[in-house]
Design brief:
- The chain is an alpha+beta fold.
- It contains nine helices and 17 strands.
- An eight-stranded mixed sheet has the order 4-3-5-6-7-8-9-10, sandwiched between helices. The protein has a five-stranded mixed sheet with strand order 12-11-13-17-15, sandwiched between helices. It has a two-stranded antiparallel ribbon with strand order 1-2.
- α2 runs antiparallel to α3 and α6 crosses α9.
- The structure holds 2,5-anhydro-1,6-di-O-phosphono-D-mannitol (AHM) and magnesium ion.
């Protein structure tokens, strides 16, 4: 027997961590893994087939959708629908939650919030994109349709969260609140295999990731922090390296492995921040915290932010604890 642990095996083994578990969450995670493989196949051949370019539709944020966004959204919803463990999907691509209509799914216990294809403007130029997902337990009784209270839960109530990065290799990284584990897709056997067990963000980092083109629109504290990152100081290994891909999943994945801070502050163009709380920031914050890092909006833990609407935005600062704490000090000092 080989030493390989597949995602499917790992999920089943870990089910023992949850004595109350009846296998539903395991099946739900497995369904997400299957859809990720299908999306991966299409992302990989994006340059080959006539799937690139505007689909002609506009999503709820008023941004042009790429065809692959639509495709990924359909695949994840289809997998969750047929899996029968999810009663509603809240997706970046839909203004309203997609409630499952079939009997078995209607009574399912889990809620999924998802950004099916994050960073999709990068597809045309062959740069990594990702999927981000967040899973909650249903609060309302089964037997009746679930409702918006089931969806608008605090990030602290997530039972699992993860991302898939479609990069130079494809990886699925997830947490159920007991550490973070990463799986790399082996295309030859079509399986995600455990490659990064118990991921921890390095305690020190020297990378800062921010869209510096927006500099003039940043809050003063962020401007001062950027100057600090650029200043020479041997003791703290500055200047830090500036690395920004423009796909949140890819920027976070690199910083999770190498140590660093990812910043998307409020700007005058996006006074509430650009990134979405429910399906971008909460799941990534859960992972970063589980890997030993810190995730805040500058003043408050992201997981504690009260969700009021499905597509709510927030400022986000995520990375190793020391770097994020220092950024918070700058925000307080330079109002
Ligand atoms: P999207 O969900 O429309 O793809 O937008 C989210 C993306 C993130 O992946 C990335 O971190 C950010 O937007 C980049 O924004 P900007 O181009 O303003 O730097
Ligand atoms: Mg997105």
């Amino acid at each position: 027997m080989s030493g390989i642990t597949t995602l499917g095996q790992f999920i089943i083994e870990k089910q023992a961590d949850f004595p109350y578990a009846k296998g539903e969450l395991s099946r739900l995670l497995r369904d997400i893994g299957i859809a990720a493989k299908i999306v991966n196949r299409e992302v990989n051949k994006a340059g080959l087939v006539d799937i690139l370019g505007d689909s002609g539709q506009i999503n709820v944020q008023g941004e042009g959708q790429k065809k692959l966004d639509v495709y990924a959204d359909e695949q994840f919803i289809k997998a969750l629908q047929s899996g029968g463990e999810c009663c509603v999907v809240a997706s970046e691509e839909h203004e309203n939650p997609v409630y499952m209509q079939s009997g078995v799914s209607k009574n399912a216990k889990y809620i999924v919030c998802i950004d099916p294809l994050d960073g999709s403007s990068n597809i045309d130029v062959n740069v990594s994109v990702g999927t981000i997902f967040s899973i909650y337990r249903r609060l309302s009784d089964t037997g009746v349709s679930c409702n918006s209270n089931d969806i608008l839960q605090h990030g602290t109530q997530q039972v699992a969260a993860g991302y898939v990065i479609y990069g130079s290799s494809t990886m699925l990284v997830y947490t159920t609140g007991k550490g973070v584990n990463g799986f790399t897709l082996d295309p030859s056997i079509g399986e995600f295999c455990l490659s990064h067990p118990d991921m921890k963000i390095p305690e020190a980092g020297n990378i800062y990731s921010i869209n510096e083109g927006n500099y003039s629109k940043f809050p003063n504290g962020v401007k001062q922090y950027i100057k600090y990152c650029q200043m020479e100081d041997a003791a703290t290994q500055r200047p830090y390296a500036s690395r920004y891909i423009g796909s949140m999943v890819a920027d976070i994945h690199r910083n999770l492995l190498k140590g660093g801070i990812f910043l998307y502050p409020t700007t005058s163009a996006h006074p509430n921040g650009k990134l979405r709380l429910m399906y971008e920031c909460n799941p990534i914050a859960f992972i970063i915290e589980q890997a030993g890092g810190r995730a805040t909006n500058g003043y408050q833990r992201i997981l504690d932010i009260e969700p009021k609407t499905l597509h709510q935005r927030t400022a986000a600062f995520l990375g190793n604890t020391a770097m994020v704490k220092l950024l918070e000090d700058f925000l307080l000092k330079h109002q």
